Amino acid sequence: MYLLWPLLFLHVSAQHLTLFDDRLKQPTQEGRVRLVGNLPSSGRVEVYHNRQWGTVCDDGWDLAEAQVVCRQLGFPGAISVTPGGQYGEGSGPIWLDDMKCKGSESSLSECSFKGWAITDCSHKEDAGVVCETGKNVTSDRHFFVDNSLGLSDDLGLLFDSGDGCDFIVNVQDISEEAEMKFCVHSMILMFYPKLNMTNGSRNLTVDVSHSCHPHVSPFLRYLYTRQIDVSTTSAQCLHQLAFIFGVQKLMEDVGRAFTLLIPEDSTFRTQVSMYEYGIRTGDFVLQENVLQYLSWNCEFLISSPVWSTISFHMMDALLQRSDLIVKDEAFLLEALEKWIQDKGDEISSDQQASLLNHIRFLLIPVDKLYDMQFSSSVLQSES
């Protein structure tokens, strides 16, 4: 399945840390989706909003909407849509109606729609989808991180036994209210100043998705032993936990697993969201690896639906690359112009000018450049 790396929002207050990540909290977060039917890959589409599951009206329901749902659930894509309550009538609210998706959104709630629960439909019009099940995009690969530098194995046994522990780490699931408790040793956590252990608190609450819960214990054990087994499926959870606890070395090491995923998604959605995630967590190695891959595959990126979704700071970094591969500079200029037009008022004139400064106009043939100054609205506005 595609592993997506959406933006990370971290809230730290009174020893309470909250982790938001769209993909990792898929089982629990606002706006998640599920399929109700006999198979995991097909069924009635339901959306979680305001702590309640609801359905989607089939008005305007098309393959673009189905693609968003299927990818949000981790399937490669959609095969077909099923209108008219084919998978039975749901109950509760009809949350979404008159959906208008481009097909490139990361979640169904990002698409245009009337508004939550604004509808003239009945449950007889509940929409459904059939998703591709194909092969998984990535296979799970493992590598072992060892930063122990001769630390005693007894530290791992100390964590396992819990003997003498004096500090509680509460791990909660934000919307499902599932909770795990780990008794650890404050002396160990004091090595991580980001946790501010000097304030005398005896507990720490971390709100993460249910899918990350199995990885918390190995992570906490790493704090004792500096050793951990990392896989491509556990990498994001471990990376984000390392970010919360301020374990920079583990962040860097786990980032190696991310590089295995970079070539796996031909839609470029994974790579773009990984870059934004790298910005949020300050992982410069991850940013560089993603930018290098996108630079080498820039023409394919430009032709993908993801091109119009790239942020200004990512576009700015990409255009400054000396290893950017495109067929010619005029092609890049035209692609930038389309991006600017798609962004509309989101991009200021100063930002447009700064991006255009990265274009090597001297490499564009004079006759081509002459024609473009009359056909290009962006160049006209800058002249």
From TrEMBL:
Domain SRCR: 33-132
Keywords from the UniProt entry: Cell adhesion, Disulfide bond, Extracellular matrix, Secreted
SUPFAM superfamilies, A to Z: POZ domain, SRCR-like
Listed InterPro entries: BACK, BTB/POZ_dom, SKP1/BTB/POZ_sf, SRCR, SRCR-like_dom_sf
Major subcellular location class: secreted
Organism domain of life: Eukaryota
Pfam families the record matches: BACK, SRCR
Cellular location(s): Secreted, Extracellular space, Extracellular matrix
PROSITE patterns named among the record's database cross-references: SRCR_1, SRCR_2
Disulfides per UniProt: C57-C121, C70-C131, C101-C111
Protein name listed in UniProt: SRCR domain-containing protein
Organism of this sequence: Cirrhinus molitorella
